[in-house]
TrEMBL record, chain A:
CDD domains: ABC_MJ0796_LolCDE_FtsE (cd03255). This is ABC transport system ATP-binding protein. Coiled coil: none annotated. Residues 9-228 form the ABC transporter domain. It holds the Pfam family ABC_tran. PANTHER family: ABC TRANSPORTER RELATED (PTHR24220:SF685), IMPORT ATP-BINDING PROTEIN (PTHR24220). SUPFAM superfamilies: P-loop containing nucleoside triphosphate hydrolases (SSF52540). InterPro entries: AAA+_ATPase (IPR003593), ABC_transporter-like_ATP-bd (IPR003439), ABC_transpr_LolD-like (IPR015854), MacB-like_ATP-bd (IPR017911), P-loop_NTPase (IPR027417). The keyword Electron transport does not apply.
Amino acid sequence: MMTPAGTLLAATDLRKAFGTTKALDGAEFSIHPGEVVAVMGPSGSGKSTLLHCLAGIVPPDSGSITYAGRELTSLNDAERSALRRTEFGFVFQFGQLVPELTCVENVALPLRLTGVKRKEAERTALHWMEQLQVEELVAKRPGEISGGQGQRVAVARALVTAPRVIFADEPTGALDSLNGELVMQLLTEAARSANAAVVLVTHETRVAAYSDREIVVRDGKSRDMERIV
Amino acid sequence: MPQSPEGIRPAIYTLSVYTQCRVADMSIGHTLLGLLEAGPRHGYDLKRTFDEKFGHDRPLAYGQVYSTMSRLLKNGLVEVDGVESGGGPERKRYAITDAGITDVGAWLSQPEKPEPYLHSTLYTKVVLALLTGRRADELLDTQRAEHLRLMRILTQRKRKGDIADQLVCDHALFHLEADLRWLELTAARLDQLAREVRR
Ligand SMILES: Nc1ncnc2c1ncn2[C@@H]1O[C@H](COP(=O)(O)OP(=O)(O)OP(=O)(O)O)[C@@H](O)[C@H]1O
Ligand SMILES: [Mg+2]
């Protein structure tokens, strides 16, 4: 399959149905290293499904997804989950931190899962918590911190493995304006300085304004607004 | 905010417009008066402080300071507190009067009239799109893309700017977002209405 030069992650003609619901109906996507792409569109249009397919969480019924030249749909489950652990980072709207672990243990978790020793994993975790300005929360558990703080801890966790793609599904959805801005600023700055790509699902235009360009998903089809306008 | 009979085009949300709107012409008097409430100042000092705090891209002209001060003098809101040797109007030191303090207080406690930022043309377009069987959602996407173009510039400027820049940009960003949300809701409602009418 042909992908534009320099593309890190690309999908063509993605289709995914849940029963009779066509969640994706020929969607396209592409992103370059260091690029932030906003995915917009009405509720139920297929944004999260697109993100899940791109991240190898949900297999599409048909279509092609290439990541760094590899066809994602032809990998087996073990290969796909290895890819997710080492190359991808995730931020969701809520409920992503493990309540039994402290914040620093939460942030270090993706590294621990790839076999990094505790001390080293927590040292890297602390670095990212400092970047996200939540280093004072290291010893607290998720139940003892605010929603905005928790979201910044989650962003630190998404960045801790130095992923090449960060998937963020409504990362500011549960936050007030000030915390939303802070999360977006820190997320995009950290991603740009690490040359990571960000797939940012959001319905808020102010949040999308942190992106380099946007695509719009409607009825499972995507529109690349850069090519249209 | 300037207004035309047709309403306001999104293009009007340009950086220069917003910077110029930081202190609208009519409130320069109140702003200078407010600065004087903090303590007496010479004309040149007033201008410098105003420019520093509010003038960024459009400094006050000296002439504007003098004409404003003579109006405030005439209305008894300020008084001359001393004149530095060397003469010239910029050498006058002004102090606020009790009436001036009352005036500043009244201005600050008065809410600003909410501006109709939105544009009847957008509404007209949505209605026309639906009436002619075109897709209002595509019109919305295109408009959003246009808004986003400016919103990205404002967001970047906010990142680099000082706190005053951030506040000005945030104001513009929230208004631009409000325009789009209104448009989206309008399109959804009209779509619904159009369906019901057709049934
Ligand atoms: N696991 C599932 N089982 C059944 N239907 C699903 C499932 N996931 C998504 N869908 C359906 O697929 C469509 C697209 O859903 P998706 O979650 O991708 O939308 P979205 O654009 O993310 O919406 P929102 O903005 O509300 O999050 C919807 O109609 C939804 O009901
Ligand atoms: Mg969703």
